[in-house]
Every structure is written in C-alpha cells, then in structure tokens.
Design a protein that fits this description.
- By secondary structure, the protein is of the alpha/beta class.
- Helices cover 41% and strands 12% of the residues.
- The protein has 2 domains: 202 residues, Rossmann fold (3-Layer(aba) Sandwich); 182 residues, Rossmann fold, CATH 3.40.50.12580.
- It is built from 17 helices and 12 strands.
- The chain has a 7-stranded parallel sheet with strand order 3-2-1-4-5-6-7, sandwiched between helices. A 5-stranded parallel sheet has the order 10-9-8-11-12, with helices on both faces.
- Strand 11, helix 12 and strand 12 form a beta-alpha-beta unit.
- It starts with a helix and ends with a helix.
Length: 396
C-alpha cells in the first residue's frame, strides 16, 4: 500500500473516532494512561496509575499500550491493561472523560480529540533545559507537528513551580494559566520512606560497591554520545581506579544512543569491567530509583539534573560539545549560570573530581540548594496525590 494512501486511511479513521468521541456518553470513573507512544510503562504516567490502583478504588485506571511486554507486566501486577489498537482499547478511549500522557496523545488515543473531548492532562518529563522543537531551525516536521498537537490537545500541564512552568511554557506555549503546580510524581520516590535502598542495590548486584555514580547524558541529533569524552581517556585506568575505591559508574544512555551502532565497540569494551556497568531502561525502568541509591550524578544537558537536585547530592558535568549544542539546539536558561558542579575536561581532572566525591567533598552544595528552592515549590513526596486531586476536580 502506498504511504499516502495509508496515511489518508489512518487520518480518516482518526477523524471518525474523534467525531464519535464528541457524542458518546462518558464513564466518569474511567481514566486512561499511557507513556512513550505506547511503548513503555514508565515515568509520571505509571506512578499516577499505580497510586490510583492502590489508593482509589472509586476510580478505574486503565493502561493502554502497543507493547506485548508492557501488557504482560501490567496484567501480572493485576492492573487493567489493553492494547491501544484493540477494539476494547478504542472503545475505552471513546468512553473516557480524561487521559494522562507522558509524551502526547499517541501514548493513549488512536485519534486527535476535537474540542478537547476527552480532556488531557499532559504530565510531560519535567523542567526543560534544552530548547524545544518549535524553537529550532530545520526541526523535523514530525516533531514540530507533535509539539503543536500537545499544545492544542492539552487541558493542562503539571509543573513543580512557577519557574518550572515558565520554562515548560517556552517549550510548549500552552499558556501559563494552564499549568498546575502539583510537582512531578516521579520525584515522590525521593521522599518515600518505604523504599529500601539496600534491598534495591542488592537486586541489581550493586551491594558490594561503597560509592555509586549514575551517568545520564542526553541525546544529540548529530550522533551518539561520547562517554568519558577526554583526549587522555583510558578506560582500563578508570576501571582500576574505581575498583580500588569500591566505586561504580552506572551508565544510563538515552534510548536513542542505544540504537546507534557507533558506540558498539565502547559497550563491548566495558562489558566485563567491574567499575563500569550499563544500566538500561530494560534493567531498571525507573531512573529515579538509580538516582535515589546513587552518591552523585554525571550528566551533560539532561533534564535529569533538575530531578536530581532534590537529592542534595553532587553533580558532575561533561559538556564536551557545549559550543555546538548551544549553536544548534540551545538552552532556555543560561547553561553556565544554572549548572553548579565540577566540569572536568581531562581524565586526570575527572579522577580528581571522583576523589573529592569519594571523600564527600561538595563545594557546590549551597548553590544547588538555592536552585532547588527555585525549581520546586513542593518538596514533600506528595506530588502524585496532588495530581489525583487534579483529576478528580476535572471529572467531577
């Protein structure tokens, strides 16, 4: 079938469903959830879904997915889940008064709602550091359309503070009046007394390591991330140093980087290194669990930095291509003014920074905490509760 004919058929199907959704009666208890275009059970969406499942029997949370693996996982945990493209999934999407997403409409629905029916709470990922598609020259048409779609379909978007809302509104200008300052559900784990760090470390085979450092870089449209981007890099030396200090660096690449074959040699090289360990989404779906057990973060331009700042732990920055990143993508806040942490440019400097971490030296603590209070109105682990109250206020 020709691509244009397939697209025409899908558009027609979507339009018919959107018309039906305008007139079909809604089930007030029903709430639909999805994430990562139907591919994963993760992020803010998953946490709100699980919370409602545990705490609110008066509501009916349903997860929609395209993934057989996700379907089996949610079903095994006694959650209600259907395939997004199934008749049941489509029927529920017509009957729901509200749906919650992490990446946009396609997380859940097979159609683009008319007149915002059903209503959409866009949970997003958090505070953006880099500029969005709408601000980039020569941005992929598909990405631009997706951003515009989120703006036109979202009834509201959550944020952790007024500052965060102002940054998110630059990324997706839906209007500051449409932001709800609930906080981010995925950060509640940082305050959860039930979380057993020792047990979690043991489940990942990390119990013998005294210091855990999580390395979370962001993606680059021009190629794969260079881990440890130093001219004098020597992975054997780095690995030996880490073993001697009973430390480990957990590498958490962006999912786009995992598909890039140019890093295949690197992954093979570290495969049997005790001090370096690949920690993908498949191994640990919730990156904030890694953040909770870690002693420090390494990043470049990832918005993970904004989450991590709640933990009051050191952050190391490796912005090796900062000049190009600023030119081709850019940032909403000034990068230098908002990134408080060491920025080593050689492996020798990097090992010195690690030595400080091992010895609990933290010279940027006060500056980070000032930013933390700017980024977060709520630091109480109750963001998920506030999102549920928001849901109830909308469907009431």
């Amino acid at each position: 079938m020709n691509a244009w004919l397939r697209d025409l058929m899908m558009y027609s199907f979507s339009f018919v469903l959107s018309l039906i959704a305008l007139v079909i009666p809604k089930s007030k208890r029903l709430i639909l959830f999805g994430a990562f275009a139907g591919k994963r059970f993760a992020d803010n969406s998953a946490l709100v879904y699980e919370f409602i499942q545990r705490k609110h029997p008066e509501l009916r949370p349903v997860w929609l997915t395209n993934s057989q693996e996700v379907f089996k996982k949610v079903r095994a945990e006694k959650g209600e889940v259907y395939y997004r493209r199934s008749l049941k999934g489509i029927w529920l999407s017509l009957r729901t008064p509200i749906y919650l997403t992490s990446h946009g409409v396609k997380d859940v629905l097979m159609f683009i709602p008319l007149l915002k029916r059903p209503k959409h709470i866009y949970l997003h990922h958090g505070i953006p550091l880099r500029r969005g598609w709408l601000d980039l020259k020569n941005a992929p048409r598909k990405s631009v359309l997706s951003s515009k779609q989120k703006i036109t379909t979202s009834n509201c978007m959550i944020a952790p503070s007024k500052f965060a809302a102002s940054q998110q509104n630059k990324l997706l200008p839906i209007g500051l009046d449409k932001f709800e300052l609930t906080g981010l559900p995925r950060n509640d784990i940082f305050f959860d007394a039930r979380f057993n760090a020792d047990k979690f470390k043991d489940s990942l085979g990390l119990a013998k390591h005294k210091k855990l450092i999580v390395y979370c870089p962001t993606w680059r449209p021009w190629g794969a991330t260079k881990f440890f981007p130093f001219e004098d890099v020597n992975l054997e030396t780095l690995n030996t140093w880490l073993k001697q200090h009973k430390a480990i660096i957990l590498l958490r690449p962006h999912h786009v980087d995992l598909k890039d074959k140019s890093n295949a040699k690197f992954w093979q090289e570290i495969k049997y290194m005790e001090g370096l360990k690949l920690m993908t989404h498949d191994i640990c779906p919730n990156v904030n669990q890694l953040a909770r057990i870690s002693d420090a973060l390494i990043t470049d331009y990832s918005s993970m930095y904004y989450d991590y700042i709640l933990l009051d732990k050191p952050v190391v920055f490796l912005p090796y291509d900062l000049e190009r990143y600023e030119k081709e993508i850019g940032f909403y806040p000034n990068y230098a003014e908002i990134t408080h942490g060491a920025k080593p440019t050689s492996q020798i400097q990097f090992l010195n920074v690690l030595e400080d971490l091992i010895n609990n030296k933290d010279t940027y603590k006060e500056q980070r905490n000032e930013l933390r209070d700017l980024f977060y109105d709520h630091q109480d682990g109750r963001s998920t509760e506030r999102v549920v109250e928001l849901i109830k206020s909308i469907i009431r």
